[in-house]
């Protein structure tokens, strides 16, 4: 969690920086639009077409909820996510940069034999908590009007906490926890639909993140598909 | 270089991707059970109780495996409690759980197995439990002790027989544990502790640890009591198993053999001689160590065989018995296998028939390098007509080889036989078989040990010669510088033998008598007289069998050795040639001489050549002029040795060396008296030519104690170079009348005291005492040693005998002589009896061989306990009337010891003087016309009554003394007043007697007596007069000589080298001045300049009323009055 806070603190200035106008091209754009503003002032009765959408970027934020379908022994789990981002002004805001933070808590359990413990066998239960920080580059196909398909790709920072308990011979094993941080990759594939002040999203996220902990096992990963829906606002 | 912020973020993200951390619950330690394990042989499960023991499931998404908390053992101390180190982690792997030693039961309980493979070192361990996160751990401090298995190293007996009685088996080893009172289990075959009478652990040391099981000790022994009849004959393995929880077992292969009892079926012969013999005992089951004993059918003591020889099949024992069985008694023959069983009753029997009994062989240790005469003591011998006995030496316990010897009778002792053990006899212990005419032999087992081990290095025998006509006292020194293996010391008490150089097999070594062990390096002994004149090797045979050999160590001369009786002048001058006239006896024509000197303050001896010339002899009496070469050093003391051509020599001691002017050397401090004495008598004398002594007699404790003078005396030895020994009280020799301010004179070995004061009045009485002569003592011998019901224990006993004289004896009234030489008696072991020692001695004789008169008995001294040390004999029986004494062990030893060398006899009264005198002068001089007569002089002095000294006297008186040929002296019946009085009365004066030995100007046969100055009332009388000793002792008219130049009184007079000396007394107070006067060429006149002060002598704080005596070229100034008026205890010495 401390790692997560550090990352958020580091990413925030980047996001703030992304809101500043680009240094070089901005003067020419501003210069070009200013006569149109003066013209509107001088001719208020004449209907005007809406200003070109690509004229500026926009900030976006959204929430998502869905189900995680791990490709390993972890059981499916519900996951939530929040995202913030910047719609780049070019090409009708077809490109966006997002930062998503998600949380899920898949579990696993099992039974094994071991002559060293009472009953020569034991049951175990794993609760695998995961927070993912995922900066994502997103492409949006904006020419379909209210329906905007998109696809993205980006690295993912997985913050794990594994908590394992068990029983043997009727005696409980106290919990042992393990925290780990790993890198991964995610590829969201979704569809926006303009609804209300924002867009309703439906998304399938394909992700892969190394797990490789003592509790989970060597070489394990958190790969899976997440189906989720959300709502995204653009400001 | 500018770093882009994005690069920093990327780096942090990638780096943080490596982090990983496991957290387990905290662990707490509780108990360990058991807390004691055996690290070997066993698998012991140890259970831990605590909290937070938490396994961790791993590989849950791949291959699940359970990681248990890790357990390790950390060694903190050994079993004795000393700090130790070491760490063992118990094997545990989830991938190989079958070989894991760790077990998890719950969060509150775990366990682990201690197995031999862990190879735990014995000691105390902390147990550490660590959860899988590696950080949460707990320590069970001192939780576990590991001990080794018991090691059974030995049983005290490899075999036993329990058929007849319970048996005790003692097992020894290490690591036998007692745990909470439980002892190890001993297994003998299938039998265990429950089958035994008891099992007791011994040699236990508690382990330094608190155990839940109770106190735990590690022991080194187990005593197992096996009840009778438990074990049948056979072999049984022995195993020891410790109590749980450390129940390891010994793994040594040790077995116990259980034997059947011996069985005796016959004994040959059916009789045994009183003196011993051989029995053949037949039967079965005789062990090699079996012994045979004759057990009386009545109450007589049991007689054990001296040796037993068992045949290979265990069916025949050949036993040799020594003496000890009771005549006509019947004895059971009992075979003892010493395994717990003897042959069962009824026993075979033998009866005892009469015969001689040999009980002692002397000496018991024989060196096989020489032929040694051995005396065999037998109770009775029926001598065959041949006059000799058949004697056999057989190695102890064997039947062969046999060395046949011929025993001959010891003259005067019909029950003793002597044999000669030939040289070359094989070393070892021997039994002695003696056959006399009775036909009944006697056996003395282990009678003689023959040795060949020469490991004692002997350095010297001094003197290295003697002569056939007299016994010779010798001192034997060990070579202490000898290295191993020749560094064996003298062991109390050795036998000494003189074996002729180049001896043949028929030459028999001479046994040296009266051997006295002084210490590990020094012996004294006496070579008996009448030995063949030749050279001898000295052999020292220690009781432990070690031997020393000094080739050609001693020579017996056919002629008597030289003796020097006088040397004139008595002192030498430094740095010049000194002619000295030497008188004595037995100087041969080829005699040579050398002078050995010890410079003052040095122990380095130097030698000067001496040329002898002008030898003249009349009979044995001789004189010769010894011219001593230049080189004598002022202040040195010298010994003149005269050596005859046959190598015998005599040391004359001592000649002092003065400077060329004849001045005395600077005074040096001597040793202090035991107590201060003033106005005492100092005298010097000799017990033998080598044993010289200084005496301090009477006196008082100083001005404040003048009323109570002393009656005791002190003695100090003086060696041939004048070195003093410590002063010691003179035992049993107090004056009849304590006195101070007495006069004295020394004639031969007699000290004369007369006059003086008893503290309140002047005395007319006189006393004399004789320096006891070590030659005038009984000659002690052992007449017999007799077995009896009562007597002495076996071992060494040391005897001495002294002579007691009657009250009328003029030399030693009611006194005691010096003791005889020590006689060391080896009392043998005689089974069932003790030994009585019959001592015999001869009456003491004088130098002429005439028995001493007035002998009323003898005192017998003996060491109070067996194996006492030399010199420790105490009075055993006083006043034995005859010359024999049977020591039957009944007398109770006292504490009185014999008188030491240098002791005086009891003081004998002299005829009273005509006038009581105190502060008088005393002197003695030879009668000019009657050889063998001398005169004592009591000169002037003062009367004293009720403590007040009266007007001094001018008179004198003299007493004749007859010097007898035997060295004794007889005094006249009364003092004779001098015909003339001195011109001036005085007291605290001194007197000198000078003759030809003092001043060459005085004719031979003439003696002058000089009177010095003194006190008269409060004034000094400085007169000096002389008189000439006339026939009968009168001094004639006194002639005035050159007077003192100062007022002097209470000085010490001395004369030598033609001079008269005074020491101290100037002003009648302690003075350090010395004065001298030279006798002129016209004696008795003194040279001009007489009585001038002599500087450089240095009398320290000064002397007044001190005693003076000359011994071994030294003048000794003894005691006196200190400046405080108290008595002085110091001694000063000067070479003269």
Describe the structure.
The complex is a heterodimer of chains A (235) and B (1136). Chain A is mainly beta. Chain A has helices spanning 2-19, 26-42, and strands at 58-70, 77-87, 95-104, 107-113, 121-140, 147-168, 171-195, 198-209, 224-234. Chain A has an eight-stranded antiparallel barrel with strand order 1-2-3-5-6-7-8-9. In chain A, a hairpin with a 6-residue loop joins strand 5 (121-140) and strand 6. Chain A is elongated, with a radius of gyration of 24 Å. The two termini of chain A are 29 Å apart. Chain B is mainly beta and 1136 residues long. Chain B is 1% helix and 46% strand. An eight-stranded mixed β-sheet of chain B has the order 31-33-36-35-34-37-38-32, with no helix packed on it. An eight-stranded mixed β-sheet of chain B has the order 49-51-54-53-52-55-56-50, with no helix packed on it. The longest helix of chain B is centred in the N-terminal third of the chain and has 12 residues, at 5-16. Chain B starts with a helix and ends with a strand. Classes of the chains: A mainly beta (235), B mainly beta (1136). Chains A and B meet through helix 1, strand 4, strand 5, strand 6 and strand 7 of A and helix 1, strand 1, strand 5, strand 6 and strand 9 of B.
Give the largest chain-chain interface (CB within 8 Å). A-B, 49 and 47 residues
Helix content range of the residues of chain B, please? under 10%
Termini separation of chain B comes to 113 Å
Placed side by side, the strands forming the largest sheet of chain A appear as 1-2-3-5-6-7-8-9
Structural class category of chain A: mainly beta
Radius of gyration of chain A: 24 Å
User: What pattern of helices and strands is seen along the backbone of chain A?
Assistant: HHEEEEEEEEE
* Structural class designation of chain B: mainly beta
**What would you call the quaternary organization?**
heterodimer
Number of strands of chain B: 92
